């Protein structure tokens, strides 16, 4: 089934606003079609691999905001990865049935898309690039394209940290811009205190 995927170049000053606006629209669509009201960010990846650390970095940054609108699973200290994903999802289904799950993960794509963030409605399958048979997760997905080509696992080990950090900063800034108002276009991406979402 075809689904619309939005692409945003990390590092562009206008990307957080555009990304945040589209994220808020997707959240509103899911709310209309389900009984879910709260927001839960499921940040997938490992802190032991540079490229795969995007999810935990985003989770770490979001957790620092202590936002009341959402819960965050997957950080640098408590990452969500292939070993504990199933257990985590079981817990989420049991205790957070009213939550819209926004899954965040690293991905590979075309050469010209490296450094882009993708956003769309639906689930993603973590680990697909390294032939791991993991469950599909999420009502909405956010991925950061950290590299290109088909040899995913070695590529993740050799990804430049600067690319991952720029993606993580832009994702968090975009979440902070999510809402009906035009908020702080010139915000400093690294200031996690501004990442409060207005759903």
From TrEMBL:
Q: What Pfam families does the database record attribute to this sequence?
A: DUF1256 (PF06866)
Has UniProt tagged this entry with the keyword Hydrolase?
Answer: yes
Gene Ontology MF annotations: peptidase activity
What keywords tag this UniProt record? Hydrolase, Protease
**Does the record carry Protease as a key word?**
yes
- Which GO biological process annotations does it have? proteolysis
InterPro entries per record: Pept_HybD-like_dom_sf, YyaC
Entries under NCBIfam families matching the protein = spore_YyaC (TIGR02841)
Give the protein's recorded name.
Answer: Spore protease YyaC
Give the gene symbol: yyaC
């Amino acid at each position: 089934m075809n689904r619309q995927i939005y692409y945003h170049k990390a590092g562009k000053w206008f990307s957080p606003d555009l990304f945040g606006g589209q994220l808020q629209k997707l959240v509103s669509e899911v709310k209309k079609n389900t009984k879910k009201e709260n927001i839960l960010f499921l940040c997938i990846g490992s802190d032991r691999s540079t490229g795969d650390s995007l999810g935990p970095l985003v989770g770490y940054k979001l957790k620092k905001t202590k936002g009341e609108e959402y819960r965050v699973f997957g950080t640098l200290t408590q990452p969500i990865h292939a070993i504990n994903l199933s257990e985590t999802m079981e817990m989420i289904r049991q205790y957070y049935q009213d939550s819209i799950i926004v899954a965040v993960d690293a991905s590979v794509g075309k050469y010209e898309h490296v450094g882009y963030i993708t956003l769309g409605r639906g689930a993603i399958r973590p680990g697909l690039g390294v032939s791991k048979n993991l469950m599909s997760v999420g009502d909405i997905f956010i991925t950061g394209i950290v590299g290109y080509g088909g040899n995913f696992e070695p590529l993740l080990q050799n990804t430049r940290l600067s690319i991952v950090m720029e993606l993580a900063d832009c994702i968090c800034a975009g979440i902070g811009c999510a809402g009906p108002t035009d908020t702080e276009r010139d915000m400093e991406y690294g200031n996690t205190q501004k990442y409060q979402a207005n759903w």
